[in-house]
Amino acid sequence: MPQSPTELQTYAFGKRYAWYALFLLMLVGAFNLIDRMIVTILAGEIKADFALSDSEFGILYGTFFAIFYALFGIPLGRLADTWVRTRLLSIGLAAWSFMTLLGGLSLNMAQFSLTRIGVGIGEASSGPTATSLLSDYFPSKMRSTVLALYSCGVPIGLGLSLVLGGSIASLWNSWYPDGNFPLGLSGWRVAFIAVALPGLLLALLVASLKEPQRGISEGLVQTLEAHPFKKSWQEFLAAIPPFTFYSFARTGMPLRVWLRNLALLFGLALAVILISGFINDLVTLKAGQVYGQWRGLRITAHTVQWTALAFGIYSVMSWTQSLAYRDRPAFTLILGTPVVLALIFAGAIFMVIVNGLMAWAPLFAVTKYHESIASVGLRFGAVAAIAGLAGTAMGGILGDRLQRKNPRGRLLVSLVAMVSPAPLAWMTLSQDTFNGFLLSFISLSVVTTAWIAGILSTLQDLVLPRMRGLVYATFYLGMTILGLGAGPYLVGLISDMTGELGKGILGLYLLTPLILLIMIFAIRRVDETAKTKIARALAAGEPLPDNMVERFSPGGVN
Prior knowledge:
- This protein has helices at about 5-10, 15-40, 45-50, 55-80, 85-105, 110-125, 125-135, 145-150, 155-175, 185-205, 230-240, 245-250, 255-285, 300-325, 330-335, 340-370, 375-405, 410-420, 420-430, 435-450, 450-460, 470-500, 500-505, 510-530, 535-540, 545-550.
- The protein is mainly alpha-helical.
- It has a single domain (about 5-550), classed as Up-down Bundle (Growth Hormone, Chain: A), CATH 1.20.1250.
- Helix 8 crosses helix 21 (about 450-460), helix 9 (about 155-175) packs across helix 10 (about 185-205) and helix 17 packs parallel to helix 20.
- The protein is globular.
C-alpha cells in the first residue's frame, strides 16, 4: 500500500543525523562561495599583477567561471539524479579546492583563467547534489526552511572569503614589505592556497555521509540508474559544442530541429559581431580616437566576453532541443512548464544585479572610502555574512509559514525580496563614510538574500524526485550564464565608460521592473501547476509504478 502523507513526514536517518548532514552540506556551500568570491576582495592585487581593466577583470572573475559552471552543471546535475550523491559531492569539492590552490600558483592570466574554469566545473556538482540530498534527509513540509538554512552557506562563505582573503593577504604582505616574497608568492596567492586546503579535508567528511533513498520524503522512491555515467555523458554531448551535433545525429533529430539550431548558431554569431563591435567603438571613443575608423578585425576582451556568453546561450538551447527527445517527462516538467521557466528567468535577471553588486562592492569600498583590504574584508565581510544569514533564514522560515496559509506564500516572499533592494542600493552607495556604508548595507543584504529559498523550494515541488538535480542545474544555468557571466562584466564596462564604479553597480537595478512582471506571472499560476505535476508527467510518458499512478489519480490519497 502507498504511504499516507502523514507517514511521509519523517527523517530518512533520524532527526539528529539529518541536522548533522544539513550542517555539513551548509559548510560545503560556504566553501563553494569562499573559493569563488575570494577574488573580489583581492581584485586590486590581481588586476595589478595581470594588468587588467575593470571590464577585463569582470570577465576573468565572472565569465570564465560562469560559462563552465553552468554548462557542466547539466551533466553533473543529471549525475546527481542517477548516481551516489555523497560520492559525487565529495569528488567535486576536492576538485574545486585543488583548482583554487593552483590558482594561487598561476603565473599569468591564461593559467589563472584555466584554474577559474576548473573551479567552476568542480563547483557545478555542489548545488544539485546538496539540494537533492536535503530533500530526502528531511520531510517535505520543512523543505523551504531546510533549503534556506543550507543557503546560509552562501553568506557565510561570502563573508569568510572577504575576511580571510583580506586578512591573509594583508598580513603576508606586511611580513615582506620589500616585495621579496618566498617562492614569489604575494599576498593574494597565499590567500588562495590557505582557503583551498581545508576544502580537501572537508571532502573526506562528505564522503562518509549516508545516502538516503531518492524520493523517500514524498513516497516516490526511485532506484539508481543502471548506467548513471552514460546518462550524464549524454547530457554532456547534448550541451557542449561541437558534440551537440553528434548528439543530434545519435538522437535522430528531425531536419526542422537541425535547421532551427543552425539558425540560432548564425544568429548568435551575428549578434556577437555587432555587439562587440559596437562596444569596441565606444571604447575607441572613450580613448579619444576616431570613431568608425577601420582597424581590422579586433579581438578584444569585449569580443571574448560576448563570444563566451553566446557560446553559453547556444549550448543551453541545443541541450533543451535534445532533452525534448531524450527525456520527454523531464523536458515537460522543467522546460515545458511556463512557471518553471518564469522562475528561472526571474532568478537569472536578479542575479545579474546581485553578482554585479557583490563582485564590485569590496573594491568600491576600498577606493571610495580609502580603506585597506584588510579593513574592508573584515568589517564588510562580517556584515555581509551576518546580514545575509539573517535574510536567507528569514526568507525560508517566513516562506514556509505563509505557504501553510497560501499556496503562493513562498513566492510572495521571493517577490518582495527581489523588487525592494533598488532604493536600498542607492542609499548604500551614496553614503559619505565607510561606517554609513556598512550600516546601510545591512538592510540591503537582509532583503536581497531573502529570495532564494522560496524559488528553490518551489522548483523542487514542481518536478519529480528524479528531476531535482536537473531542475536545480537548469535554474543555475540562467543564474550563472546571465547573472555571473554578465553582471560583473556590465558593471566593469559601465565603470570603464563613466569612470564611476557606483554608477556601474546602480545601473543594473533598472532591471527590477522586468523581474516584477515575471514573478507576478509565476505567482498567479504556481498553484495549478503544482497540482497537475503528476498528470503532466504521466501524459509525457513517465513510467511511475502502478500504485503511484493510483495514488495521484483523481480521488487518490494525495
